[in-house]
Amino acid sequence: MEHFWTSGPSDKNKAMVEYLQQYGIIKSKKVAEVMEAIDRGLFVPAGNPPYVDSPMQIGYNATISAPHMHATCLELLKEHLQPGMHALDVGSGTGYLTACFAMMVGPEGRAVGVEHIPELVTSSIENIKKSAAASLLKEGSLSVHVTDGRLGWPELAPYDAIHVGAAAPEIPQPLVEQLKPGGRMVIPVGTLFQDLKVVDKKLDGSINVRSETSVRYVPLTSRAAQLHNY
């Protein structure tokens, strides 16, 4: 597919979005618009083909998910990313999906990225500064923090939407607690075999969990474990 994408970066990004629409991964205008606005090429390390539908290594034993996985998660969360809502991106990595969340919740909302590798937090902020979400970062509705993602970010809880970008052996309880009644979390769960789980918290506080699809993510772990042998 990449041979079609020979013009400028924004044209290639648009072609990637059209490809995902063609294959039924992007279903809504809202997700198409935000993925067109946030150029993936600004978030993939130099030397990698950013618009190919594949995960990419970003250093520190971390990856940026494939575009189809980002699109899938945005589609699953879109009703919980309305203007004014609060969103948490756990394992925010390059900052790509955090920036998408910020564009969707807008200046009245809050989009928070948490990542336990300080160097990735620093580079993700630089990536966001080059993107369409730069003003949201400057004005404070978008922020990225160094912390253990398994603990979430209680300061701005509860969250209407929580996305976890690494696979947990089980759903971390602090993230369940920080999910707003009526909110939704999307999280890969498992070790060798993983499922993308959709966790809905009902208004009475009860939890409903379903499996969306089989996936393969890097593990949600401690900083020390992630950097072991790096």
UniProtKB/TrEMBL annotation:
Keywords: Methyltransferase, S-adenosyl-L-methionine, Transferase
Keyword Membrane: no
EC number, as in UniProt: 2.1.1.77
Spans traversing the lipid bilayer: none
Annotated source species: Phoenix dactylifera (Date palm)
Domain of life: Eukaryota
GO CC, one annotated term: cytoplasm
The gene coding this protein: LOC120111366
Protein name: protein-L-isoaspartate(D-aspartate) O-methyltransferase
Molecular functions (GO terms): protein-L-isoaspartate (D-aspartate) O-methyltransferase activity
GO biological process, one term: protein repair
Reaction equations catalysed: [protein]-L-isoaspartate + S-adenosyl-L-methionine = [protein]-L-isoaspartate alpha-methyl ester + S-adenosyl-L-homocysteine
Family: Belongs to the methyltransferase superfamily. L-isoaspartyl/D-aspartyl protein methyltransferase family.
PANTHER family registered for this protein in UniProt: PROTEIN-L-ISOASPARTATE O-METHYLTRANSFERASE, PROTEIN-L-ISOASPARTATE O-METHYLTRANSFERASE 1
